[in-house]
Design a protein that fits this description.
Blueprint: E1 2-3, E2 14-27, H1 30-42, H2 47-70, E3 75-87, E4 90-102
Parallel strand pairs: 1-3
Antiparallel strand pairs: 2-4, 3-4
Length: 103
């Protein structure tokens, strides 16, 4: 499966199959939240949150690819990621793009 942030692939013609997406919602761990709260007092990267968001991005991307595969897509164009707070202590990561089949 080709994933790209561009709107086309050079020298490839395709038909658009539709929008595909995948998401993942994760919550903060109490222990993780406490240690990261302490880290915020001294500054620097919140490494466990970075790891959590990277993991969420991978899960969301995989779910998007699975949806594209179910449409028999060859690629997903114009891939984007977005995050939002769902509720206090929970964040959603969504991956979305346009599924296409080469002709």
């Amino acid at each position: 499966m080709i994933l790209t942030t561009t709107e086309s692939i050079p020298h490839k013609e395709f038909e658009i199959l539709g929008i595909v997406k995948g998401n993942c919602i994760q919550t903060k761990n109490i222990g993780r939240d406490f240690t990261q709260g302490l880290k915020s007092l001294v500054g620097g990267e919140l490494e466990t949150y970075t790891k959590m968001l990277n993991e969420s991005r991978q899960i969301a991307t995989q779910r998007m690819v699975e949806e594209a595969e179910s449409l028999k897509a060859d690629a997903v164009l114009n891939v984007r990621f977005s995050t939002s707070s769902v509720m206090q202590g929970a964040a959603e990561m969504i991956a979305y793009g346009t599924a296409v089949r080469f002709v």
